[in-house]
Amino acid sequence: VPTPSLPPAAHIEVIPCKICGDKSSGIHYGVITCEGCKGFFRRSQQSSLSYACSRQQNCPIDRASRNRCQHCRLQKCLRLGMSR
């Protein structure tokens, strides 16, 4: 039995993560994020870690560089509205 293909309008648009631009998985802590940023934010809130930036505190946070600076990634999460 052939499987009917979906019409073009039935394709679901993937919204990028507001933090890093990767594929989002839903709204987490108030912001559309990917699983990676959701987990990073959760871990940073569970432990009272203090991150430091070794540069000028304006590191780019995108899919390729999101793991390079925890301080700047957390600041972007907070700036874009993520909260417990």
Automatic annotation (TrEMBL):
Localization in the cell: Nucleus
A GO molecular function term, named singly, is: nuclear receptor activity
Keywords assigned: DNA-binding, Metal-binding, Nucleus, Receptor, Transcription, Transcription regulation, Zinc, Zinc-finger
Q: Which SMART domains match?
A: ZnF_C4 (SM00399)
| Highest taxon above the source species | Eukaryota
Q: Which GO terms describe its cellular component?
A: nucleus
Q: What is this protein called?
A: RORG protein
What species does this protein belong to? Chunga burmeisteri (Black-legged seriema)
